[in-house]
Design brief:
- By secondary structure, the protein is α/β, with parallel strands linked by helices.
- The protein is built from 5 helices and 9 strands.
- The strands form 2 sheets. Strands 1, 2, 3, 5, 7, 8 and 9 form a 7-stranded mixed beta sheet that branches. A two-stranded parallel sheet has the order 4-6.
- Strand 2 and strand 3 form a beta hairpin.
- The longest helix is centred in the N-terminal third of the chain and has 18 residues.
């Protein structure tokens, strides 16, 4: 298993994220073309609470941000995940099935810290979700995921609701050092 400190990691965009989960571990950027990057910003265990936030308030905000868009591309960057709860995986899988008509593609960048058994579990979960019609890919090559045409969308208006911070200035005051 790889030591988390040995993996170079930086936020996917140089601008502040649009949302940060209540724990401060997950940053979300809306993207252009329409979609989102959801990234663990530091070595973190994936918890049920984080998954509940992703499938609840975060996905709700994504669908509100891009109403009527049926080809959203969501990138789950989990390179910094040090472990996860089985419940968290089940919640994410169920959400994928529920919102499959609104999402064009989900790209999972798996943890580099959990070894080959974890990758096999992710592959099995992806096969199950694909049966619901959702296009899900696993990509370990970050350069293929964060293509030159992918960029952060314009910032949202100030909105501090449902445990989310959407004002970039507030994000930097509250969480800036955690994501650098």
């Amino acid at each position: 298993m790889t030591d988390a400190r040995s993996i170079p990691h930086a936020p996917c965009f140089v601008v502040s994220p649009h949302l940060i989960d209540p724990s401060g571990a997950i940053a979300v950027w809306w993207t252009d073309p329409p979609g989102a990057v959801m990234q663990l910003g530091e070595p973190t265990r994936g918890t049920t609470e984080m998954a509940e936030w992703l499938v609840g308030p975060a996905i709700d905000r994504l669908l509100q941000r891009f109403p009527g868009t049926g080809e959203l591309r969501v990138i789950l960057d989990m390179r910094q995940m040090t472990g996860r709860s089985a419940t968290a995986r089940a919640l994410l899988m169920q959400c994928g099935k529920t919102v499959s008509r609104r999402l064009g593609q989900v790209v999972i960048v798996p943890s580099m810290l959990l070894g080959p058994t974890y990758i096999k579990i992710v592959e099995a979960a992806v096969l199950l979700v694909r049966m619901s019609g959702l296009r899900v890919e696993i990509e370990q090559n970050v350069e293929r995921v964060f293509t030159p045409g992918l960029r952060a969308a314009a910032p949202d208006a100030v909105d501090v609701t449902a445990g989310m911070i959407a004002d970039p200035r507030a994000i930097q005051r509250e969480h800036g050092p955690r994501l650098r």
